[in-house]
Amino acid sequence: MGYSCVRFNDLPDEILMVIFKNMNNVEVLYSLKGVNQRLNKLVQDSTFTSRLTFVKRCSDNFFDVFPCNMMLNRFCLQILPEVHDKIKWLDLESSSMRNVLCATDYPNLYGLGLYNINEESARCLFTGKKFLLNYFYPE
User: Fold this and answer.
1) Which residue numbers delimit the F-box domain (predicted)?
2) CA distance 20 to 103
3) Other CB atoms closer than 10 Å to residue 56's CB: what's the count?
4) Dihedral class, residue 102 (left if φ above 0, else alpha if ψ from -120 to 50, else beta)
5) Cα dist from 10 to 5, 7, 13, 113, 114, whole Å
6) Which of 56, 98, 101 is nearest to 80 (CA)?
7) Which of 40, 103, 117, 118 makes a 20 to 30 Å CA pair with 4?
8) Is 90 helix (H, G, I), strand (E, B) or coil?
9) Residue range 34-57: average pLDDT?
10) Cα–Cα distances in Å, from 46 out to 17, 40, 41, 95?
């Protein structure tokens, strides 16, 4: 039995979609958005943009998907404004909540999951008070 070498770009869209569906949607968008036109088209599918989960669960704790502010800033400044109208649900951890919610408008958002949120942040969010003006962290 011989082996053949198949490159990533040789795979059909259907196979790539199966692979990407097994990954976190936020990580798919962050990793593949802007690579080339073909991947841009694939990752902007509603499969990857309708529900964005910015949290990971480990035991009984929830953690932000992005390990550094630079990654969160890129997502908020470049990616969210391009897909904002496709987003229907956001799952957010308290450390990224303000940045994500203030990055753009979400006209089709109907669901919001909040994790590790403190009382003061919840009060500001649900009473209509504005968040602080410093939305994005320095890199």
Assistant:
1) 5-52
2) 25
3) 15
4) alpha
5) 10, 5, 9, 37, 39
6) 101
7) 40
8) strand
9) 89
10) 12, 12, 11, 26
Over residues 12-34, the pLDDT tens digits come to 999 999 999 999 898 899 999 98
Q: What is the pLDDT of residues 88-130, one digit of tens each?
A: 999 988 878 888 998 999 999 999 888 887 777 777 777 765 5
Token pair of 137 as six digits: 């962290």
Q: If DSSP codes are grouped into helix, strand and coil, which group holds residue 107?
A: coil
Q: Cα–chain-centroid distance for residue 29?
A: 7
CB 81 within 8 A of CB 103: yes
Of 86, 79, 118, 119, which Cα lies nearest the Cα of 100? Answer: 79
Count of CA atoms in the C-beta half-sphere (13 A) of 15: 7
Q: What is the pTM of this model?
A: 0.77
* Extents of the domains making up the chain: 8-127
Q: Kindly state the average pLDDT of the residues 2-11.
A: 77
